[in-house]
Amino acid sequence: xxxxxxxxxxxxxxxxxxxxxxxxxxxxxxxxxxxxxxxxxxxxxxxxxxxxxxxxxxxxxxxxxxxxxxxxxxxxxxxxxxxxxxxxxxxxxxxxxxxxxxxxxxxxxxxxxxxxxxxxxxxxxxxxxxxxxxxxxxxxxxxxxxxxxxxxxxxxxxxxxxxxxxxxxxxxxxxxxxxxxxxxxxxxxxxxxxxxxxxxxxxxxxxxxxxxxxxxxxxxxxxxxxxxxxxxxxxxxxxxxxxxxxxxx
Amino acid sequence: xxxxxxxxxxxxxxxxxxxxxxxxxxxxxxxxxxxxxxxxxxxxxxxxxxxxxxxxxxxxxxxxxxxxxxxxxxxxxxxxxxxxxxxxxxxxxxxxxxxxxxxxxxxxxxxxxxxxxxxxxxxxxxxxxxxxxxxxxxxxxxxxxxxxxxxxxxxxxxxxxxxxxxxxxxxxxxxxxxxxxxxxxxxxxxxxxxxxxxxxxxxxxx
Lengths: 249, 206
Known about the structure:
The structure holds 2 protein chains of 2 kinds. Chain A is α+β, with helices and mostly antiparallel strands.
Protein backbone atom coordinates (compact mmCIF):
# COMPACT_ATOMS: atom_id res chain seq x y z
CA UNK A 1 0.00 0.00 0.00
CA UNK A 2 1.05 3.58 -0.52
CA UNK A 3 0.84 6.01 2.36
CA UNK A 4 1.37 9.69 3.15
CA UNK A 5 3.18 10.34 6.43
CA UNK A 6 3.27 13.65 8.29
CA UNK A 7 6.10 13.33 10.76
CA UNK A 8 7.33 15.78 13.41
CA UNK A 9 10.96 16.77 12.76
CA UNK A 10 12.93 18.69 15.35
CA UNK A 11 16.73 19.07 15.27
CA UNK A 12 17.20 19.26 19.07
CA UNK A 13 15.51 20.28 22.30
CA UNK A 14 15.97 24.00 21.63
CA UNK A 15 15.12 24.03 17.93
CA UNK A 16 11.69 24.84 16.61
CA UNK A 17 10.17 21.75 15.08
CA UNK A 18 7.65 21.25 12.33
CA UNK A 19 5.86 18.63 10.26
CA UNK A 20 7.46 17.10 7.14
CA UNK A 21 5.40 15.15 4.63
CA UNK A 22 6.77 11.88 3.17
CA UNK A 23 5.42 9.31 0.73
CA UNK A 24 6.10 5.61 1.24
CA UNK A 25 5.31 3.02 -1.43
CA UNK A 26 4.65 -0.74 -1.53
CA UNK A 27 4.24 -1.14 2.21
CA UNK A 28 3.27 -4.69 3.18
CA UNK A 29 0.26 -5.10 5.44
CA UNK A 30 2.35 -7.61 7.46
CA UNK A 31 4.98 -5.00 8.39
CA UNK A 32 5.01 -3.50 11.84
CA UNK A 33 4.66 0.25 12.15
CA UNK A 34 8.34 0.57 13.07
CA UNK A 35 9.39 -1.56 10.08
CA UNK A 36 7.48 0.86 7.91
CA UNK A 37 9.56 3.63 9.52
CA UNK A 38 12.72 1.62 8.78
CA UNK A 39 11.70 1.58 5.11
CA UNK A 40 11.10 5.33 5.21
CA UNK A 41 14.48 5.92 6.88
CA UNK A 42 16.33 3.83 4.28
CA UNK A 43 14.57 5.85 1.62
CA UNK A 44 15.71 9.09 3.33
CA UNK A 45 19.32 7.83 3.63
CA UNK A 46 19.35 6.91 -0.08
CA UNK A 47 18.13 10.41 -0.88
CA UNK A 48 20.98 11.83 1.23
CA UNK A 49 18.61 13.15 3.90
CA UNK A 50 18.80 12.70 7.63
CA UNK A 51 16.77 9.71 8.89
CA UNK A 52 14.02 10.19 11.46
CA UNK A 53 15.06 9.60 15.08
CA UNK A 54 12.69 7.44 17.10
CA UNK A 55 12.95 5.28 20.22
CA UNK A 56 12.75 1.49 19.87
CA UNK A 57 14.39 -1.49 21.48
CA UNK A 58 12.86 -4.95 21.91
CA UNK A 59 10.16 -4.64 19.24
CA UNK A 60 8.25 -7.29 21.16
CA UNK A 61 5.92 -4.99 23.10
CA UNK A 62 7.64 -5.47 26.46
CA UNK A 63 10.40 -2.88 26.85
CA UNK A 64 8.44 0.38 26.73
CA UNK A 65 10.91 2.19 24.48
CA UNK A 66 8.69 2.93 21.48
CA UNK A 67 6.65 6.05 21.88
CA UNK A 68 4.87 7.43 18.86
CA UNK A 69 1.67 9.46 18.98
CA UNK A 70 -0.09 8.16 15.87
CA UNK A 71 -3.13 9.95 14.42
CA UNK A 72 -4.04 11.40 17.81
CA UNK A 73 -3.45 8.26 19.89
CA UNK A 74 -0.37 7.10 21.80
CA UNK A 75 0.81 3.82 20.20
CA UNK A 76 -1.85 4.19 17.50
CA UNK A 77 -5.34 2.78 17.06
CA UNK A 78 -5.03 -0.78 18.38
CA UNK A 79 -6.24 -1.45 21.92
CA UNK A 80 -3.51 -2.49 24.40
CA UNK A 81 -0.81 -2.56 21.75
CA UNK A 82 2.56 -0.82 21.62
CA UNK A 83 3.75 1.00 18.48
CA UNK A 84 6.14 -1.85 17.65
CA UNK A 85 3.29 -4.37 17.76
CA UNK A 86 0.97 -2.20 15.67
CA UNK A 87 0.92 -3.66 12.18
CA UNK A 88 0.24 -1.99 8.87
CA UNK A 89 -2.94 -3.98 8.29
CA UNK A 90 -4.49 -1.35 10.56
CA UNK A 91 -4.27 1.00 7.55
CA UNK A 92 -5.42 1.02 3.99
CA UNK A 93 -3.92 2.24 0.75
CA UNK A 94 -3.89 6.02 0.44
CA UNK A 95 -4.16 6.77 4.18
CA UNK A 96 -2.49 9.80 5.71
CA UNK A 97 -0.85 9.16 9.08
CA UNK A 98 0.24 11.95 11.44
CA UNK A 99 3.09 10.95 13.77
CA UNK A 100 4.08 13.14 16.71
CA UNK A 101 6.31 12.74 19.75
CA UNK A 102 4.83 12.48 23.29
CA UNK A 103 3.84 16.03 24.25
CA UNK A 104 4.49 17.03 27.85
CA UNK A 105 6.54 19.62 29.66
CA UNK A 106 8.11 16.80 31.69
CA UNK A 107 9.05 14.90 28.48
CA UNK A 108 11.09 17.39 26.41
CA UNK A 109 11.87 16.39 22.82
CA UNK A 110 15.45 15.22 22.33
CA UNK A 111 15.18 14.89 18.57
CA UNK A 112 12.31 14.26 16.13
CA UNK A 113 10.10 11.61 17.77
CA UNK A 114 12.43 10.84 20.66
CA UNK A 115 11.60 12.37 24.04
CA UNK A 116 13.49 12.45 27.33
CA UNK A 117 11.63 10.17 29.77
CA UNK A 118 14.22 10.22 32.56
CA UNK A 119 11.63 11.93 34.79
CA UNK A 120 10.13 8.44 35.20
CA UNK A 121 13.50 7.07 36.36
CA UNK A 122 13.76 9.80 38.98
CA UNK A 123 10.25 9.00 40.26
CA UNK A 124 11.34 5.35 40.68
CA UNK A 125 14.53 6.47 42.42
CA UNK A 126 12.39 8.44 44.89
CA UNK A 127 10.83 5.27 46.29
CA UNK A 128 9.89 2.66 43.71
CA UNK A 129 12.02 -0.07 45.30
CA UNK A 130 12.32 -2.16 48.45
CA UNK A 131 15.37 -2.13 50.72
CA UNK A 132 16.47 -5.67 51.50
CA UNK A 133 19.59 -7.38 52.79
CA UNK A 134 21.44 -9.04 49.99
CA UNK A 135 22.27 -12.70 50.17
CA UNK A 136 20.63 -15.85 49.01
CA UNK A 137 17.08 -15.61 47.74
CA UNK A 138 14.50 -16.81 50.25
CA UNK A 139 12.42 -19.85 49.64
CA UNK A 140 9.41 -18.76 47.63
CA UNK A 141 6.91 -19.97 50.21
CA UNK A 142 8.51 -18.28 53.21
CA UNK A 143 6.29 -15.23 52.73
CA UNK A 144 2.66 -16.15 52.24
CA UNK A 145 0.93 -13.77 49.79
CA UNK A 146 -2.81 -13.56 49.25
CA UNK A 147 -3.64 -14.83 45.75
CA UNK A 148 -5.87 -11.87 44.81
CA UNK A 149 -3.27 -9.37 46.00
CA UNK A 150 -0.53 -11.21 44.14
CA UNK A 151 -2.63 -11.06 40.96
CA UNK A 152 -3.37 -7.35 41.34
CA UNK A 153 0.24 -6.60 42.15
CA UNK A 154 1.32 -8.53 39.08
CA UNK A 155 -1.18 -6.65 36.89
CA UNK A 156 0.25 -3.36 38.17
CA UNK A 157 3.81 -4.59 37.61
CA UNK A 158 2.94 -5.10 33.94
CA UNK A 159 3.56 -1.33 33.46
CA UNK A 160 6.45 -0.93 31.01
CA UNK A 161 6.95 2.77 31.77
CA UNK A 162 6.46 3.88 28.17
CA UNK A 163 4.70 7.14 29.11
CA UNK A 164 1.59 6.64 26.98
CA UNK A 165 -0.50 7.59 30.02
CA UNK A 166 1.23 10.98 30.20
CA UNK A 167 0.91 11.43 26.43
CA UNK A 168 -2.80 10.59 26.51
CA UNK A 169 -3.71 12.68 29.57
CA UNK A 170 -5.01 16.17 28.86
CA UNK A 171 -3.12 17.28 32.01
CA UNK A 172 0.11 15.37 31.15
CA UNK A 173 -0.32 13.59 34.45
CA UNK A 174 1.89 10.65 35.41
CA UNK A 175 -0.59 9.30 37.95
CA UNK A 176 -1.24 5.98 36.16
CA UNK A 177 2.48 5.23 35.93
CA UNK A 178 3.09 6.23 39.55
CA UNK A 179 0.03 4.40 40.82
CA UNK A 180 1.12 1.20 39.07
CA UNK A 181 4.51 1.39 40.75
CA UNK A 182 3.04 2.19 44.18
CA UNK A 183 0.34 -0.51 43.90
CA UNK A 184 2.78 -3.15 42.75
CA UNK A 185 4.77 -2.80 45.98
CA UNK A 186 2.03 -1.73 48.43
CA UNK A 187 0.08 -4.95 47.85
CA UNK A 188 2.98 -7.22 48.80
CA UNK A 189 4.44 -7.93 52.25
CA UNK A 190 7.92 -7.10 50.91
CA UNK A 191 6.79 -3.57 50.11
CA UNK A 192 4.92 -3.00 53.35
CA UNK A 193 7.86 -1.68 55.39
CA UNK A 194 8.45 1.42 53.27
CA UNK A 195 4.81 1.79 52.25
CA UNK A 196 4.09 5.16 53.91
CA UNK A 197 7.27 7.00 52.95
CA UNK A 198 7.33 5.54 49.44
CA UNK A 199 4.01 7.01 48.30
CA UNK A 200 4.72 10.48 49.69
CA UNK A 201 8.25 10.64 48.27
CA UNK A 202 7.21 9.43 44.84
CA UNK A 203 4.28 11.87 44.61
CA UNK A 204 6.59 14.71 45.65
CA UNK A 205 9.08 13.76 42.92
CA UNK A 206 6.29 13.52 40.33
CA UNK A 207 5.16 17.06 41.15
CA UNK A 208 8.76 18.29 40.99
CA UNK A 209 9.18 16.84 37.49
CA UNK A 210 6.38 19.02 36.16
CA UNK A 211 3.65 16.47 35.49
CA UNK A 212 0.06 17.67 35.80
CA UNK A 213 -2.52 16.41 38.25
CA UNK A 214 -5.14 13.71 37.75
CA UNK A 215 -8.69 14.79 36.95
CA UNK A 216 -9.96 11.23 36.41
CA UNK A 217 -10.79 11.47 32.70
CA UNK A 218 -9.48 7.86 32.39
CA UNK A 219 -7.84 8.50 29.01
CA UNK A 220 -4.69 6.88 30.44
CA UNK A 221 -6.38 3.54 31.03
CA UNK A 222 -7.96 3.62 27.57
CA UNK A 223 -4.58 4.20 25.89
CA UNK A 224 -2.28 2.11 28.12
CA UNK A 225 -0.69 -0.67 26.02
CA UNK A 226 -0.60 -2.89 29.12
CA UNK A 227 -4.17 -2.21 30.29
CA UNK A 228 -3.13 -0.76 33.65
CA UNK A 229 -6.37 0.07 35.49
CA UNK A 230 -7.27 3.44 37.04
CA UNK A 231 -8.14 1.32 40.07
CA UNK A 232 -4.43 1.75 40.81
CA UNK A 233 -4.93 5.53 40.93
CA UNK A 234 -7.69 5.01 43.48
CA UNK A 235 -5.31 2.90 45.53
CA UNK A 236 -2.58 5.55 45.19
CA UNK A 237 -4.99 8.22 46.46
CA UNK A 238 -6.01 6.04 49.40
CA UNK A 239 -2.36 5.21 50.19
CA UNK A 240 -1.41 8.88 50.05
CA UNK A 241 -4.30 10.03 52.26
CA UNK A 242 -3.61 7.24 54.76
CA UNK A 243 0.08 8.09 54.84
CA UNK A 244 -0.50 11.81 55.41
CA UNK A 245 -3.15 11.29 58.11
CA UNK A 246 -1.16 8.64 59.95
CA UNK A 247 1.87 10.92 60.18
CA UNK A 248 4.02 9.33 57.48
CA UNK A 249 6.66 11.79 56.27
CA UNK B 1 -11.51 18.93 44.58
CA UNK B 2 -12.87 15.60 45.75
CA UNK B 3 -13.49 16.55 49.37
CA UNK B 4 -15.11 19.91 48.56
CA UNK B 5 -17.03 18.27 45.72
CA UNK B 6 -18.54 15.64 48.03
CA UNK B 7 -19.47 18.38 50.51
CA UNK B 8 -21.21 20.38 47.77
CA UNK B 9 -23.04 17.24 46.59
CA UNK B 10 -24.42 16.77 50.11
CA UNK B 11 -25.63 20.38 50.03
CA UNK B 12 -27.41 19.75 46.70
CA UNK B 13 -29.43 16.97 48.34
CA UNK B 14 -30.71 19.31 51.07
CA UNK B 15 -31.32 22.19 48.64
CA UNK B 16 -33.23 19.93 46.26
CA UNK B 17 -35.31 18.38 49.06
CA UNK B 18 -36.38 21.70 50.60
CA UNK B 19 -37.23 23.31 47.27
CA UNK B 20 -39.07 20.24 45.99
CA UNK B 21 -41.62 20.90 48.75
CA UNK B 22 -43.16 23.47 46.36
CA UNK B 23 -44.52 20.50 44.37
CA UNK B 24 -47.08 19.83 47.12
CA UNK B 25 -48.82 22.69 45.32
CA UNK B 26 -50.15 24.06 48.59
CA UNK B 27 -49.33 27.67 47.80
CA UNK B 28 -45.88 27.18 49.31
CA UNK B 29 -46.95 26.47 52.90
CA UNK B 30 -44.72 23.42 53.45
CA UNK B 31 -41.86 25.01 51.52
CA UNK B 32 -42.02 28.27 53.49
CA UNK B 33 -41.99 26.33 56.75
CA UNK B 34 -38.85 24.43 55.72
CA UNK B 35 -37.22 27.56 54.27
CA UNK B 36 -37.87 29.36 57.54
CA UNK B 37 -36.12 26.56 59.44
CA UNK B 38 -33.15 26.72 57.04
CA UNK B 39 -33.03 30.51 57.27
CA UNK B 40 -33.16 30.82 61.05
CA UNK B 41 -31.78 27.64 62.66
CA UNK B 42 -28.38 28.49 64.23
CA UNK B 43 -26.82 25.13 63.24
CA UNK B 44 -27.84 25.66 59.61
CA UNK B 45 -26.53 29.24 59.74
CA UNK B 46 -23.13 27.96 60.90
CA UNK B 47 -23.17 25.24 58.19
CA UNK B 48 -23.85 27.99 55.66
CA UNK B 49 -20.49 29.57 56.50
CA UNK B 50 -18.89 26.18 55.82
CA UNK B 51 -20.80 25.99 52.55
CA UNK B 52 -19.61 29.44 51.45
CA UNK B 53 -16.01 28.52 52.26
CA UNK B 54 -16.49 25.14 50.52
CA UNK B 55 -17.87 26.57 47.32
CA UNK B 56 -15.16 29.21 46.97
CA UNK B 57 -12.46 26.67 47.82
CA UNK B 58 -13.86 24.42 45.09
CA UNK B 59 -13.92 27.29 42.55
CA UNK B 60 -10.44 28.61 43.35
CA UNK B 61 -8.90 25.13 43.45
CA UNK B 62 -10.64 24.25 40.20
CA UNK B 63 -9.42 27.34 38.38
CA UNK B 64 -5.84 26.91 39.64
CA UNK B 65 -5.91 23.23 38.64
CA UNK B 66 -7.23 24.00 35.16
CA UNK B 67 -4.57 26.62 34.42
CA UNK B 68 -1.71 24.69 36.05
CA UNK B 69 -2.58 21.54 34.12
CA UNK B 70 -2.86 23.43 30.86
CA UNK B 71 0.70 24.72 31.33
CA UNK B 72 2.02 21.14 31.58
CA UNK B 73 1.77 20.74 27.79
CA UNK B 74 3.30 23.85 26.19
CA UNK B 75 3.15 22.39 22.66
CA UNK B 76 -0.13 20.63 21.88
CA UNK B 77 -0.87 17.78 19.50
CA UNK B 78 -1.80 18.40 15.88
CA UNK B 79 -4.18 15.46 16.14
CA UNK B 80 -6.16 14.65 19.27
CA UNK B 81 -8.12 11.50 20.05
CA UNK B 82 -11.41 13.39 20.58
CA UNK B 83 -13.91 11.19 22.40
CA UNK B 84 -12.11 7.92 21.69
CA UNK B 85 -10.43 7.64 25.08
CA UNK B 86 -12.44 9.93 27.38
CA UNK B 87 -15.82 11.64 27.67
CA UNK B 88 -16.11 15.27 26.57
CA UNK B 89 -17.66 16.32 29.89
CA UNK B 90 -14.80 14.68 31.81
CA UNK B 91 -12.39 16.89 29.91
CA UNK B 92 -14.55 20.02 30.24
CA UNK B 93 -14.99 20.30 34.01
CA UNK B 94 -13.40 23.76 34.08
CA UNK B 95 -15.71 25.06 31.36
CA UNK B 96 -18.82 23.43 32.89
CA UNK B 97 -17.84 24.79 36.32
CA UNK B 98 -17.48 28.29 34.89
CA UNK B 99 -20.93 28.08 33.28
CA UNK B 100 -22.38 26.92 36.61
CA UNK B 101 -20.64 29.80 38.39
CA UNK B 102 -22.12 32.34 35.95
CA UNK B 103 -25.55 30.83 36.58
CA UNK B 104 -24.90 30.96 40.35
CA UNK B 105 -24.20 34.69 40.22
CA UNK B 106 -27.69 35.25 38.81
CA UNK B 107 -29.16 32.69 41.20
CA UNK B 108 -27.61 34.34 44.29
CA UNK B 109 -28.74 37.74 43.03
CA UNK B 110 -32.30 36.44 42.80
CA UNK B 111 -32.68 34.66 46.14
CA UNK B 112 -29.77 34.32 48.55
CA UNK B 113 -28.51 37.92 48.56
CA UNK B 114 -31.96 39.62 48.90
CA UNK B 115 -32.89 37.18 51.68
CA UNK B 116 -29.77 37.69 53.77
CA UNK B 117 -29.81 41.44 53.09
CA UNK B 118 -33.39 41.65 54.33
CA UNK B 119 -32.52 39.65 57.47
CA UNK B 120 -29.46 41.82 58.06
CA UNK B 121 -31.55 44.98 57.84
CA UNK B 122 -33.89 43.55 60.48
CA UNK B 123 -36.81 43.05 58.09
CA UNK B 124 -36.87 39.26 58.45
CA UNK B 125 -36.86 36.73 55.65
CA UNK B 126 -38.34 37.50 52.25
CA UNK B 127 -41.30 35.50 50.95
CA UNK B 128 -39.23 33.13 48.85
CA UNK B 129 -42.27 31.47 47.27
CA UNK B 130 -43.64 34.80 46.02
CA UNK B 131 -40.15 35.76 44.85
CA UNK B 132 -39.85 32.52 42.86
CA UNK B 133 -43.20 33.22 41.19
CA UNK B 134 -41.99 36.70 40.24
CA UNK B 135 -38.50 35.70 39.06
CA UNK B 136 -39.69 32.71 37.03
CA UNK B 137 -42.26 34.75 35.10
CA UNK B 138 -39.52 35.92 32.71
CA UNK B 139 -38.78 33.47 29.89
CA UNK B 140 -35.05 34.36 29.59
CA UNK B 141 -34.55 33.68 33.31
CA UNK B 142 -36.19 30.27 32.96
CA UNK B 143 -33.93 29.46 29.99
CA UNK B 144 -30.78 30.53 31.88
CA UNK B 145 -31.83 28.37 34.85
CA UNK B 146 -32.43 25.36 32.60
CA UNK B 147 -29.02 25.81 30.90
CA UNK B 148 -27.38 26.22 34.32
CA UNK B 149 -28.94 22.97 35.51
CA UNK B 150 -27.87 21.11 32.36
CA UNK B 151 -24.28 22.29 32.98
CA UNK B 152 -24.62 21.05 36.56
CA UNK B 153 -25.87 17.71 35.27
CA UNK B 154 -22.80 17.11 33.07
CA UNK B 155 -20.52 18.44 35.82
CA UNK B 156 -21.97 15.83 38.20
CA UNK B 157 -21.82 12.99 35.63
CA UNK B 158 -18.05 13.21 35.92
CA UNK B 159 -17.76 14.82 39.35
CA UNK B 160 -19.72 12.34 41.45
CA UNK B 161 -17.60 9.29 40.61
CA UNK B 162 -14.44 11.37 40.29
CA UNK B 163 -14.81 12.67 43.87
CA UNK B 164 -15.04 9.11 45.21
CA UNK B 165 -12.00 8.14 43.13
CA UNK B 166 -9.96 11.09 44.43
CA UNK B 167 -10.62 10.26 48.08
CA UNK B 168 -9.79 6.61 47.36
CA UNK B 169 -13.24 5.09 47.93
CA UNK B 170 -14.17 3.97 44.42
CA UNK B 171 -12.87 0.41 44.90
CA UNK B 172 -13.18 -2.31 42.26
CA UNK B 173 -16.18 -3.75 44.09
CA UNK B 174 -18.06 -0.45 44.40
CA UNK B 175 -16.95 1.41 41.25
CA UNK B 176 -19.94 0.32 39.19
CA UNK B 177 -22.41 1.11 41.98
CA UNK B 178 -20.86 4.53 42.63
CA UNK B 179 -20.78 5.32 38.92
CA UNK B 180 -24.43 4.25 38.54
CA UNK B 181 -25.46 6.31 41.54
CA UNK B 182 -23.53 9.26 40.15
CA UNK B 183 -25.27 9.04 36.79
CA UNK B 184 -28.68 8.77 38.45
CA UNK B 185 -27.89 11.66 40.78
CA UNK B 186 -26.58 13.77 37.86
CA UNK B 187 -29.83 13.31 35.95
CA UNK B 188 -32.46 13.31 38.70
CA UNK B 189 -31.32 16.23 40.88
CA UNK B 190 -30.84 18.78 38.05
CA UNK B 191 -34.11 17.58 36.51
CA UNK B 192 -36.01 18.35 39.73
CA UNK B 193 -34.30 21.76 39.80
CA UNK B 194 -35.30 22.39 36.17
CA UNK B 195 -38.92 21.54 36.97
CA UNK B 196 -39.08 24.40 39.51
CA UNK B 197 -38.71 27.45 37.22
CA UNK B 198 -40.52 25.55 34.47
CA UNK B 199 -43.53 24.76 36.71
CA UNK B 200 -43.89 28.37 37.78
CA UNK B 201 -43.53 29.65 34.23
CA UNK B 202 -46.05 27.17 32.81
CA UNK B 203 -48.48 27.94 35.61
CA UNK B 204 -48.50 24.38 36.97
CA UNK B 205 -48.16 25.71 40.53
CA UNK B 206 -50.65 27.88 42.39
